[in-house]
Amino acid sequence: MKTLMNGKVALVTGSTRGIGLEIASQLANAGCGLMLNGLDDPASVETAKEKLRAAGADEVAFSAADLCDPEQATELITDTINSFGHIDILVNNAGIQHIAPVEAFTDE
After folding, report:
1. 5: which residues sit within 8 A by CB, 6+ positions away?
2. How far is CA 22 from CA 1, 12, 52, 70, in A?
3. pTM here?
4. Whole-angstrom Cα distance, residue 98 to residue 3?
């Protein structure tokens, strides 16, 4: 099925699991090529790639860039452009989750 998204390139940070993977899956279903990003183990990355290919993505690439490091964040953009030639869609999904009892949270 032809959609307005066919041929678009999406970079989705934090996309090897959870909400990011589901966003990437919807973009794959719409016909986008995808650059995945995350800090997961290689087996999880391959599982994510397989899911996206099954959802319809023709091209799926991956970068393990740690977005806490500005140089690696820049490399993620460069890697995406080198892999696909351009970026049409950026989804900033990556985040750090602090898990602790509410009493243990600091003001920061």
Report:
1. 27, 30, 31, 32
2. 20, 10, 9, 26
3. 0.84
4. 38
Cβ burial of 99 (10 Å; 0-12, 13-18, 19+) is exposed
DSSP letter string, 68-94: TSHHHHHHHHHHHHHHHS--SEEE---
- Token readout for 44 is 């999880």
| Cα 58 → chain centroid | 15
C-alpha–C-alpha distance, residues 88 and 9, integer Å: 5
27 near 10, Cβ under 8 Å? yes
Question: How far is 41 from 75, CA to CA, in rounded Å?
Answer: 19
pLDDT digits over 33-73, tens only? 999 999 999 999 999 999 999 998 889 999 999 998 999 99
Under DSSP, is residue 24 helix (H, G, I), strand (E, B) or coil? helix
